[in-house]
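Today's session is about reading a structure prediction critically. Students often jump straight to the picture, but the first step is always the sequence itself: look for stretches that repeat, for charged clusters, for runs of hydrophobic residues. Only then move on to the predicted structure, which in these notes is written as discrete structure tokens rather than atom positions. Here is the chain we will use throughout the hour.
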Amino acid sequence: MTEVNTPPRTAGEAPEGAQEGPQEGAPPRPGRYTRFVTARPRLSLLVALVLTALAVLAGSGVADRLGSGGWEDPAAESTYATKALEREFPGSQPNLLLLVDSGRASVDDPAVAAEARDLVGRLAGEKGVTGVGSYWQSRSPALRAKDGHEALIAARITGDDNATGRTLDRIAPHYRGTRGPVRVRVGGIVAVRHEMQTIIKEDLARAEMIALPITLVLLVMVFGSAVAALLPLGIGIVAILGTNAVLRGLTAFTDVSVFALNLTTALGLGLAIDYALFIVRRFREELSTGATPLTAVGTTLRTAGRTVLFSALTVAVSLAAMMVFPQYFLRSFAYAGIAVVLLAAAAALILLPAALVLLGHRVNSLDLRRLFRRRRAPKPAEGTAGTPGTTWARAAGLVMRRAPLFALGTTVLLVTLGLPFLGVKFGTADDRQLPSTAESHVVQEHIREGFPGSPGGGLEVLAEGRATAAQYADYKQQVAALPEVARVDGPLVKGDAAYFTVQPRGEAVDDPAQRLVGDLRSLHTPFEAKVTGTAAVLVDTKHAIAQRLPWAAAFIAVVTLLLVFLLTGSVLIPVQAVVLNALSLTAMFGAVVWVFQDGHLSGALGFTSSGSIETTLPVLMFCVAFGLSMDYGVFLLSRIKEEYDRTGDHDAAVRHGLQRTGGLITAAAVILAVVMVAIGTSRVTNTKMLGLGIALAVLMDAMVVRSLLVPAIMRLTGRATWWAPAPLRRLHERFGLSEGGEDGPQRGAGNGATGHSEPEPAG
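Below is the predicted structure for this chain, in token form.
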């Protein structure tokens, strides 16, 4: 394919802006937006520096204000019952457990019992602690280990996640450790969540220390220039710090999950690097044709800049879909994701052009790759201006010549990799998210393995409304007769309310326990019975997800179809984009089940499999990975569309698009994968799953879907790829955005049903 390059500007050409419009053969005059962002570049960068410093101050301490829960539906029956029980019967739902180990002695030994009662008395006097009880008071067999050497003290710390964390930090050191004849460990839900929050903060700092230097090295390898490599990192840091300030502000109005910090770091670095890569690469291409820095920035913003804008919108749309779910865990990722995407795009489209105008040709300075080269003529990087990008051109040619084979083969491969997801089992996040050495994990493991039943894992039934003792007794008999029930305790009556504790057979959240929730809710009672407990929360969470998932998927699909149509003017390309993006995620979902649910590679990756996947994680991973896939899809499609509008040659446009963006997309995917793998080194299983799963998704998307499946499918659909009915063509001509316009979108880029413009003259 013969490329048409803009000729170098000569000394005799009129200066930019000297005429109303560009003369034939002269560089185009910078548009209004270009003049706006480059008018005072030093002032723009100074303002950005001041705003970034303010963001550092505003976002300081954000991690301490974030919660570690948020998996529950606030409108669910289980949530209502939990709050009512906490208010009326604080001892019914302990969130703090002290595991008292008597060593070789029995827990009934007088010295052990005396020490335990002293601990109970001290704990009952602590501020913010209610509902203290123990084996030594109740003599309940559920609170005594089967071997008789361990027993439990249970209590409830009141308040939200942050308040309970502060209380735990204050009191735990006074109870943990060896106390006379006993050894005490601290556990319970509040300890699990607090320890999870602490570990996430530590792991995030370590992930940044891992990702930043590796990313810088990779950027130097991609650009060759240390100056060019530092620009994407600067954009990423601005986006991350700005998002931390946004999250800090949001905590004043709503709950935000601590897990959102991981997404902020990953997307802040990953997308900022993607956008800056695309813009800096195009800027350098334009410079290599002889354009001035200002002209090169103008062309870059008209082409790569609009692609970045569309990419940011598609990613933001995917993340915004999580707002339809009631759990603040998912909504937090929408808050953080939308903020970091928009800030990364804004920095890339406002700050980066200002920096490029100031740097000019110095953007190519400090070529560190020469330190590793032998003494020979430097070879230009493939895919930059002036080079044919022969590897990607040959790959595109091979794929398109064997299009049916590649289309079928890659589809079968992706579907096969996704098959394990058919066996997915959904569960709740518990202590097994933590490392096996974490104190709260050790406590819960001892309880699971050594205590009868599952203390703290049963179901609670809140009975509201006046009832007689006979009616309570009749209800208790009905519950005890259910096949999944091992034991029923209660009722404990307070005014017009009472509660029962129901212990299921088997595990606290397995299928029989979930069926028991439905059975309890279907019983006819003379009072209102509300069921809560771990299994009830899981049932309600699954229901909330299932109820809103179609709306979230429809929102993503419809808005994505619209955005891609506005970019391409085609009916088929948006459908292809949605279907192929969804197909690219199959490997991620299959790997999540095979590795994290089934426990393969658990030893190598250092986690404990719970035999299930936390219910909200697949939703989160789909939204994030789909958005990132669209990010790469927009990069490729925009370059194909630009070339197709210029030449009208469909096959050549597909080859050119892959040739020009294949290396760029692969480099961006590898860099983002490095960031996600760094996040995946976390000791918290959910964070590990998120990081490693999305890393796999972006690599599969860049190296299989964009490199093989997309060109194969586009070759099979041929020129029909660009077809649109007349009403939609007119809609696109009026509202569509195509690269290459000056101050605004190209109007009427299409040419009838074929949708291509006349080839541009070489001169």
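Discussion point for the tutorial: The first strand starts at residue 96 and ends at 101.
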